[in-house]
């Protein structure tokens, strides 16, 4: 039996896991967890994951893993034919880990706060103090790409999957300026051309529609 992934297609962390699985040729049984239905706090799901977060992976033998970064690393360790997506070399892996932690603790953290204020608190605009940390993080990403093609070096890694999933969501509400961030835009476009990105496009568009439906302000032309 295939592993089961509890997920929401619009969620950036879930999309990152789906991208990794696609790259590895891994198929899931996908089970939707919808927060507006309180699926994440239902007794049966909390038994699986007491932290009641998504994505959550239940492997074929019943092993349970959550946090997108942990799941991606696990999938690579179990299914990859080589270590290119998550290098064994300790220095290369440290760089990948740093990018993953940056995505989790900075970019996704601030993007989630914005999304929650719109979807849960009913706000129809984004405060300038909510935007500023994300704009600062874009400068850091541009710096990451100063001497490399991908976020953690010159090879595609799970750090790219994690970051592009969040950056796609950021771009929906705070369009990335190609003049200020040319390397970031070039990387973003390259990621969007990956076959594994394509399988997450519908979920990304659903997330964008949910956010933009609540916003009553014009953000100008988005980078498509």
TrEMBL record:
<dbReference type="Pfam" id="PF13409">
    <property type="entry name" value="GST_N_2"/>
</dbReference>
<dbReference type="GO" id="GO:0006749">
    <property type="term" value="P:glutathione metabolic process"/>
</dbReference>
<comment type="subunit">
    <text>Homodimer.</text>
</comment>
<dbReference type="InterPro" id="IPR010987">
    <property type="entry name" value="Glutathione-S-Trfase_C-like"/>
</dbReference>
<feature type="domain" description="GST C-terminal">
    <location>
        <begin position="89"/>
        <end position="219"/>
    </location>
</feature>
<feature type="domain" description="GST N-terminal">
    <location>
        <begin position="1"/>
        <end position="83"/>
    </location>
</feature>
<dbReference type="InterPro" id="IPR036282">
    <property type="entry name" value="Glutathione-S-Trfase_C_sf"/>
</dbReference>
<dbReference type="Pfam" id="PF00043">
    <property type="entry name" value="GST_C"/>
</dbReference>
<dbReference type="InterPro" id="IPR004046">
    <property type="entry name" value="GST_C"/>
</dbReference>
<protein>
    <submittedName>
        <fullName>Glutathione S-transferase 1-1-like Protein</fullName>
    </submittedName>
</protein>
<dbReference type="InterPro" id="IPR036249">
    <property type="entry name" value="Thioredoxin-like_sf"/>
</dbReference>
<dbReference type="InterPro" id="IPR040079">
    <property type="entry name" value="Glutathione_S-Trfase"/>
</dbReference>
<dbReference type="InterPro" id="IPR004045">
    <property type="entry name" value="Glutathione_S-Trfase_N"/>
</dbReference>
<dbReference type="GO" id="GO:0004364">
    <property type="term" value="F:glutathione transferase activity"/>
</dbReference>
């Amino acid at each position: 039996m295939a592993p089961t992934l509890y997920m929401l297609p619009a969620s950036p962390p879930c999309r990152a896991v789906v991208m990794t699985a696609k790259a590895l040729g891994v198929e899931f049984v996908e089970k939707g967890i919808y927060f507006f239905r309180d699926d994440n706090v239902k007794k049966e799901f909390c038994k699986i994951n007491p932290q009641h977060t998504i994505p959550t992976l239940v492997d074929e033998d019943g092993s349970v893993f959550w946090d997108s970064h942990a799941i991606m690393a696990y999938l690579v360790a179990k299914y990859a034919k080589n270590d290119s997506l998550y290098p064994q070399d300790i220095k290369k892996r440290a760089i990948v880990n740093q990018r993953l932690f940056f995505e989790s603790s900075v970019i996704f953290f601030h993007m989630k706060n914005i999304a929650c204020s719109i979807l849960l608190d009913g706000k129809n605009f984004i405060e300038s103090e909510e935007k500023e940390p994300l704009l600062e993080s874009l400068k850091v990403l541009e710096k990451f790409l100063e001497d490399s093609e991908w976020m953690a070096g010159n090879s595609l890694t799970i750090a790219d999957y994690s970051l592009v999933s969040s950056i796609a969501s950021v771009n929906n509400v705070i369009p990335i300026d190609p003049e200020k961030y040319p390397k970031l835009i070039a990387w973003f476009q390259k990621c969007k051309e990956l076959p594994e990105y394509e399988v997450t496009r519908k979920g990304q568009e659903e997330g964008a529609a949910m956010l933009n439906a609540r916003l009553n302000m014009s953000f100008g032309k988005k980078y498509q």
